[in-house]
Amino acid sequence: MKKKQILSMILAGGQGSRLGILTKKLAKPAVPFGGKYRIIDFALSNCSNSGIYTVGVLTQYKPLELNSHIGIGSSWDLDRRDGGVYILPPYQEENGGNWYKGTADAIYQNITFIDNYDPEYVLILSGDHIYKMNYGDMLKFHKEKKADVTIAVIEVPKEETYRFGIINTKQDMSVYEFEEKPVKVKSTKASMGVYIFNWKLLKKFLRADENNKSSANDFGKNIIPNMLEMGVKMYAYSFKGYWKDVGTIDSLWEANMDLLREDNELNLGDPDWRIYSVNNVEPAQYIGPNANIKSSIAVDGCEIYGEVNHSIIFSGCVIGKNSKIIDSVIMPNTKIGDNVIINKAVVGSNVTVRRNSIIGDGKQITVVGSNVDVKSGSIFVNV
Predict the structure, then answer these.
(1) Helices (DSSP H) in the chain: which residue ranges?
(2) Which of 40, 146, 188, 200 has the fewest CB atoms within 10 Å around its CB?
(3) How many contiguous H segments (helices) and E segments (strands) does the chain have?
(4) How many Cα atoms within 13 Å fall on the side-chain side of residue 263?
């Protein structure tokens, strides 16, 4: 295979347990987002837009729908003869095999795949973050610093630092300490889970980590701290822009609602940095004679006869007469009958909500999982 300067590995195998019933039968990166996308579309589109056309997607939990969505990568211009996108599940060898034990082990099990392209650098990404980023700028920074490792960081509010790996740096952005979800913090630079490694060096650390039976085989808990202890040249790359880890119901709902803001930082309409996805052939949306839509996204394939206010309606959805959808996310192919009220909810795919039902109270987020049939007159609140 042709040598590559850099290739990307997207970690997309997590169960996503914090998304509850939305990921009961679906890998987290395959969860619908923003009316027409899947979460993983952002990492794939960023790679393509950055000129990185060799991408491995490491799957594990409930991968069928994710694999089907990615296909041969044509939606992201990744159906390349010399490179392209590869689905990389765990596999069995003659001497046995294991599920991916952690993020570092997932890369370790695919050393042979990476070596086939003999890259100088490996870009490691998470498949469940919403953001737009030019990885080429980060690679340029990595080269200028003559770094062994570069970690993308973003400033987060101090009260949220406990959720992230926190990077402590000197003035030149060299990293002297990495703290995994600390209680007390020295900085508010949070790791975005976007890493560039010099491949030959990373390979040595992955092999040493695999031989350490007490290791969690994780980048944040093991590889990064071990590299710091050994004195490798590690730098933090400061990212300015919108970024959100959508690993919880709250953050998934918030990220969808952020798209409806007038000052929306993500700007999915930017012609210079498109977010690509699989475009199913759907008829144009139909807005009924008494429908009322405000501050919302409603994509092709929708039929809306009721009221939609500050909500996101995916393709194939039907909103019945006199129904009200407020501050909610309605995922693909969900049918909502007449006289239904849905207020501050996330409703999964292929749901049927029959007439006269109520979902949500407008206070906390109510979730309805996919493929549910909500009987007529039902009341769902904080399920």
Answers:
(1) 41-49, 64-70, 103-108, 111-115, 135-144, 199-210, 224-229, 249-258
(2) 146
(3) 8, 30
(4) 1
- 87-95: long-range contacts, CB 8 A cutoff, minimum separation 24: 87/57, 87/59, 87/63, 88/56, 88/57, 88/58, 88/59, 88/113, 89/13, 89/58, 89/59, 89/60, 89/63, 90/60
The residue among 74, 26, 14, 10 whose CA lies nearest residue 331 is 26
In terms of DSSP H, where are the helices of 245-366?
Answer: 249-258
How many Cβ atoms are within 10 Å of 115's Cβ, its own excluded?
12
- Is there a contact between 102 and 217 (Cβ–Cβ < 8 Å)? yes
Q: Which fold does the domain 6-259 belong to in CATH?
A: Spore Coat Polysaccharide Biosynthesis Protein SpsA; Chain A (3.90.550)
> φ and ψ at 194, to 5 degrees?
-120, 115
Q: What six digits make up the tokens of 191?
A: 């790791």
The answer to whether residue 95 scores a pLDDT higher than 80 is no
At position 227, the amino acid (one-letter code) is: M
Structural fold of domain 286-380: UDP N-Acetylglucosamine Acyltransferase; domain 1 (2.160.10)
Q: Any binding-site annotation on 181?
A: yes
180 is in an annotated binding site: yes
d(Cα 33, Cα 245) in Å, to the nearest integer?
13
165 assigned ligand-binding residue:
yes
Judged by DSSP in three states, 292 sits in strand
Where are the domains positioned within the chain?
6-259, 286-380
Tokens of 186: 């020295």
Among the residue ranges 108-112, 127-131, 179-183, 293-297, the one predicted with the least confidence is: 179-183
Based on the number of CB atoms within 10 Å of its own CB, is 342 exposed (0-12), middle (13-18) or buried (19 or more)? buried
Instruction: Specify the pTM.
Output: 0.93
